[in-house]
Design a protein that fits this description.
single chain, 206 residues, Umud Fragment, subunit A, nine-stranded mixed beta sheet, two-stranded antiparallel sheet
Length: 206
């Protein structure tokens, strides 16, 4: 096999790594050819030579291509719908429709079923949640006292608050504000409460 262009080899590696980051899988031979500006047959011959030279690891049968960088990337992602805003002030009706779907790395955000909400208001400032922050909510874990939760009240109103447990005297669920300067000791008490998830991460825009 005659030696091939190093520039094309570098282009193949760069394309494969970019493709993996965007799609969480390695590209097919056809996709590599299109991305590198060469034919599928030529792309295959390049992959075989690059594999023989130790530049990449390529398994044609499994259609798997690995570079040094790809081997260090975590393949695990979880896809969460972005459902819009949720108030961190007075409770309001929540718009529950997905604006888009966002992929989050499991290594940073964990796995499980969840969704993302955009916080509005300032009642959770002391918990590190500010107006405009994106809050990652997990639906598949149990809420405990002190957790930040998405609470759906009896009037089908939702809000993001700290869960204060159940008042044993009145049977009311307690939802606490976390902004002592502006809302000292403020809380909401409801007879009927449905917990829609527990806040696990906050994504801030700088």
């Amino acid at each position: 096999m005659r030696s091939r262009s190093r520039e094309t080899m570098d282009r193949i590696v760069a394309f494969a790594e970019k493709f993996y980051i965007e799609h969480y899988r390695t590209p097919s031979v056809s996709e590599i050819g299109a991305g590198a500006g060469i034919s599928k047959a030529t792309a295959y011959r390049y992959l075989m030579e690059m594999h023989e030279k130790g530049m990449i690891s390529y398994d044609g049968a499994a259609r798997k291509l690995t570079t040094d960088r790809i081997s260090k990337l975590s393949p695990g992602v979880t896809v969460c719908p972005l459902l819009g805003s949720i108030p961190c002030g007075p409770v309001e009706l929540e718009e529950e429709h997905a604006e888009e779907y966002i992929s989050l790395p499991v290594s940073m955000f964990g796995g499980g079923e969840g969704y993302i909400l955009k916080a509005s208001g300032d009642s959770m400032e002391d918990a590190g949640i500010s107006d405009g922050d994106y809050v990652v909510i997990r639906k598949d874990c149990e809420a405990r006292e002190g957790d930040i939760i998405v609470a759906l009240t009896g009037g089908n109103e939702s809000t993001l608050k700290e869960y204060g447990g159940i008042d044993t005297g009145t049977g009311e669920a307690i939802l606490r504000y976390r902004n002592r300067e502006k809302y000292p000791d403020a809380e909401i008490r409801v007879k009927k409460l449905s917990i829609q998830g527990v806040a696990k991460n906050v994504i801030k825009m700088l």
